Amino acid sequence: MTTHPLAVQAEPYPFELWPARCALLLIDLQRDFMEPGGFGEMLGNDVSQLRRVIAPNQRLLAAWRAHALTVMHTREGHRPDLSDLPEAKKIRGRGATRIGDTGPMGRILVRGESGHDIIPELYPAPSEPVIDKPGKGAFFATDLHAILQNKGITQLIVTGVTTEVCVNTTVREANDRGYDCLVPEDCVGSYFPEFQTMGLRMIKAQGGIFGWVTDSASILAALS
Ligand code: TIU
Q1: What is the CB < 6 Å shell around ligand 1?
Q2: Which residues pair with 8 in a beta bridge?
């Protein structure tokens, strides 16, 4: 354990990184969001927009693993019987295909289906906890907070997809629970360029109202 924090260049001001207390939390890097035929495309989105986050996430993940730091992953999805799927979420959008229906990668957003799993490029190691969440935020109806507390984690580097939906919701939930959140902009992606920009601005505005924004190179530079 270092006796002083590492300074990461960030906005609105440098982030004081305590590596041993900082988990890398990768949000919903699932085939259902990242590949054709899944939930993201079903909602009318161009999923190719998100693939630029893969390489920078691989670099951060490799660094966290090399330093034996805490890595955790989340997946959005539901039980096969859909008992944890609110009716409101099921019918939202009034689309012909819904969560639980069969798509090219199995049943859409259902646990155990290939589309629900994390993309091979960023697949979790056996030692890395995977949080299955039914909502957009990673703290709602999960044991994420308990696991982080048990590990002595007080800081989160939050990456993944999508910037304005599950990443933003999770950062806000974490902030209210007392975690300092750092978001590397090249490691988070949105289907909408304007939401990418504003989703990040919302986090760092007002003196870092929800957290800090940086890039993966700045984190890697601080760690090296
Ligand atoms: N639709 C969309 O942008 N996102 C989601 O539905 N879930 C996540 O962000 N993971």
Answers
A1: 28, 33, 43, 76, 136, 161-162, 165-166, 191
A2: 15
